[in-house]
Design brief:
alpha+beta
Length: about 350
């Protein structure tokens, strides 16, 4: 037998044939076949964009969590961590990850691998059978035909190794989900400060303007005489005539004002109009909730947007009441706003509407 053939046989023997899905293990022992539907073989991928105060600390927490559930990290940079975790742990891992910061984006997808794996395993079985037939020919092959037999054995071994590698890759992907976590907002373009809405008060909705008005005591609107809005817990009220403003020690801003209700429309109309205006201006919608103040029903929308070097959350609440629309605005750096979110909502609910 030639050296080339001998090397091929040794390499093949060291790896051993891939166990078939019909009941034999890697050692060739026959196992009992369990009846019932085979488990689904899927490639699971998920991604999440988080706003966090400390990227490195969060990345270390994610890596430790992945290790605790039997996973590992595949990539770690200042802006991203890529993890592999058992598929069954994916949902729980994503839920725990969401608690580490502000979730800006979250995606989940799965791709069925069963068809491709079935085809690959069938091809592998067929090639193993052909290879065995060539092995049977070796002892009887003549000096002229042995070269052709060797060539076919080498080709089959290479083909089998290629199929083996693909099967192992897909089997790994079907058991270990890929999770990509990014620590940044994807769009850093500052939103527009004006708008083209035909409803003039919608064009006044802007995170940069509310911040500047607090700094330079600008006027964004007034409330009727006798109206009194309590500031959120922990906020200090501004003493501005017929305006209701407050600020927290970490510079989260809160403001209540009113605008003319023209044209008169219901809550859903104004909510949709605001969503369109904010999207066109470059804001990313974060949350959409209903809210009640006194006896009046309204809505509360929260958006994200970059402001300078920081990422802000800008929330808008609206209550159409008769000839006025009462507007509640709050804004702050994302992580600071999140810490104040509950008291802001509590203050809105106490408005005397």
């Amino acid at each position: 037998m030639s050296v080339l053939l001998w090397m091929s046989l040794v390499a093949f023997a060291q790896e051993g044939p891939v166990a078939e899905a019909t009941g034999s293990n890697a050692d060739g022992d026959v196992e009992e076949v369990v009846e019932g539907p085979a488990p689904r073989e899927e490639r699971v991928t998920a991604s999440m964009t988080l706003k966090v105060a400390n990227r490195e600390e969060t990345a270390e927490t994610l890596i430790a969590d992945a290790a605790n559930v039997g996973g590992y990290f595949a990539k770690h940079t200042a802006e991203q961590v890529v993890l592999r975790i058992p598929v069954a742990e994916t949902e729980g891992f994503l839920d725990r990850s969401a608690e580490l910061g502000l979730v800006v984006q979250r995606n989940y997808s799965s791709t069925d691998l069963g068809g491709e794996l079935l085809d690959l395993r069938s091809r592998l079985k067929a090639r193993n059978q052909i290879l065995e037939q060539f092995f049977d020919l070796v002892p009887t092959a003549g000096s002229k035909s042995i070269v052709s037999v060797e060539r076919e054995i080498v080709r089959l071994v290479a083909d089998i190794e290629k199929i083996r590698g693909r099967i192992k890759l897909l089997e790994h992907q079907s058991t270990m989900a890929r999770i990509d976590v990014a620590f940044r907002f994807r769009d850093r373009a500052a939103p527009s400060r004006d708008g083209s809405s035909s409803f003039s008060w919608l064009n006044t909705l802007n995170v940069a303007d509310i911040v500047n008005d607090f700094r330079y005591e600008g006027m964004r609107g007034t409330m009727p005489n006798g109206f009194k809005a309590e500031p959120p817990d922990g906020f200090s009220a501004y003493k501005v005539k017929r305006e209701h403003r407050a600020v927290s020690p970490d510079e989260v801003l809160y403001s209540v004002r009113s605008e003319k209700h023209k044209p008169k429309a219901d809550l859903e109309f104004w909510k949709e109009a605001v969503k369109v205006r904010m999207s066109e201006a470059g804001y990313r919608e974060l949350r959409d909730e209903g809210i009640t103040a006194g006896n009046s029903k309204g809505w509360l929308l929260e958006f994200t947007a970059p402001l300078g070097t920081q990422d802000y959350i800008y929330s808008l609440g609206a209550f159409p009441i008769g000839a006025k629309v009462v507007i509640v605005e709050a804004a702050g750096e994302a992580s600071r706003y999140e810490e104040r979110r509950e008291v802001i909502q509590a203050a809105i609910k106490t408005l005397p509407l």
